[in-house]
Every structure is written in structure tokens, then in C-alpha cells.
Amino acid sequence: MTESVVVSRTDGPHWIQAGLLLAVGAGIIWLGLSSAQQGPRLAGCVFGGSFALLGLNLVWRSLRTPVRNELIIDPAGISRVIGAVVWAVRWDELAAASVVEIGKKHKHPQLVLTPARDDFESHHRSLVRIGGGDLLAAGIPLYEREVPRVRELLAKHVGVRAERVADVQVPASPPVPAAVSGWVPPPLQPSGSVTIHMNGGDRVVYRWLRFFALAIELGLGAVIEFGPRNGFRTACIVLFIAVFVGMSWREIGWQQRNSRKFRITLELSAAGLRWRSYHRRIEVSWPEIAELRTPARLVEFLPVSDDFPLRRPELDELRQPDGWYRLPSTMSATASGEFDEHVLEVLPVGIPWRR
Fold it and tell me: Please, which residues bridge with residue 97 across strands?
């Protein structure tokens, strides 16, 4: 039996998908070219060419050398490879280890290490300090079929600690107000919700911009049509084309940002934060957040629990070196103003917010 195990998450080649796309694209092009009419020929070339381009893209990605993403357990210890070895821990540096199962759907088990010394330092973001002084091998969850072999090797080289359970956030009981002589208004409690278009612009400013652009185009059009035929008319034509192209490009960008596919929203409610795009959704409840800040129009939060990386491994890519978590997109100037205006309306008492 081998004395080592390699947990690999390295992206493999995509030859099968590339072959299917190329075959489908070639078939559509062949059907289009076999038609006697010009319309089907053009449609076949367009749709077939699209499939062929997707296939060629996968071929190009398969030809490139992928970045190694592995967790290696061998007689020397445990090491993490992301392109190259980013950290390695010898067995004599560990007091115990455990494979933690979160117990939630779509949450894979994770490897937690207990260092033998309290002053053990982590030198890479993929080895995260969590509650109790333990270290989490972040960014590489284990599959169920890999867990028995990993536990076997851990038991052979170091003591396997009893499986720890990620702490569960229990809502704190509301404090009992102290007796006062007079009536005091109760603290503001979060209510309702506010949805902020993070990549949206100011609609009023954009309407005025379109109005002035239309006025300029009308004026230039009148000069071009009824003015003298000289160099001034030529300059007006050039300016008219520049304004038209600029506003067309601006309109395309505006419509794209407001379309469902490219729209990014941030909902602030009594439950917590909900960041949503076309392909992804991130939800964090207020009991999980200790502090909130918005530096340079970025939304960041600090978790309450040290075990947050263990309980929410899907958010590991948002984690910053200082322990804060940053939402993926930057707010526009308009969205930043809306956030500053409404955040205190829904932010629970006890969670500080700073810019």
C-alpha cells in the first residue's frame, strides 16, 4: 500500500468537450454550405462558426500547462502545492489532525491541523488560523471517497483528534434594559430591506446627458444641412459623428449594466447581506458579522467567529490577508451614495460600520 496520498484539484484537459463542439460546428457549417439558398448558408456559417470557436477555445486551454493545485500527505508531512509548494508541515510540528465534516448539503469535509507549538506561524493564505489555535487547509475540500485514506495516513503519523464541529451561531438574547427614571426611546431595530444596484449609474445625470447630446446633434445637423459648404461644415460633420459614436457606446454600456446578465445587486435587509449576480449569489447573516466597512467603495465584513473559514469554505476566495472578507465587485459612485444613505436603517445595533 502506498505511503502517500495526493488530493488533486488541478484542472484537466478538455479534449472530449472540444471534440464535440468542433464536430457540431463542422456539421452545422456543412449543412449550411450544402444549401442552395444564401440565407441558410449564412446562418450555417454563423452558428457553426460559433460552436467551432468555442471548441478551439477549449483546445487552447487544454494545450496550456495547468496550475497544480494539490494537497500531498506523505511520510515527510503535509504540503500544499499551488503551482509550487506554498507551505509544508512536518509531522513533528503537529500535535493532532482531523477531517471536519460540516454536515450541510454541498459542503465537503476539510482538513484541520493542530500545531504542536502555540507560536506556529502560517506563511500562506491557504493555511488559515481558526478557533482554538488550529489551522485550516483552505481552498481544497475533500471528497467522500478520499476521506478514509486521508484519515488512515493521519492516524499513522500523528494523533487523530476527535472530530471537531464548527461552532454554530446562536442569536444572543436581547439585553434587559436597566431601570431609568424617565422614558427612553428604544434603540432603532433593522426593518425592511434596501436593494442597491452596485454597478449602476445615476439615471438623472444620464437623462440630462442624453438630452444635451441630442440637442448638440440637432444643432450640428442643422448646420450641416443648411450651413455654408466650407471647412466649418466638415468640422461639424466630424463632431457630429464623434458625438453619435460616443453616445451610442455609452448607451450600449448603460443597457448592458442594467441587463439581467450583467446586473449586480446588494440587498441589505434585517437578515443580513445578499450579493447577487447572474452566475453567483452570496448571503451572510448579521449574526455572522462583527464589523462592516466600505473602503474605496468596496464592501468588506469581519466575521464574528474564528471558525468562519471552516463553516463557510465557499467564501474562501473573498478572504483578505487581514482576515476581512471582501465582496467581489466595487460599488459605483451612485451605489456608494445609496449604501451610505441606507445602511444605518438596516444595520443591527452592535455592528459598527466605518468607511
Answer: 113, 160
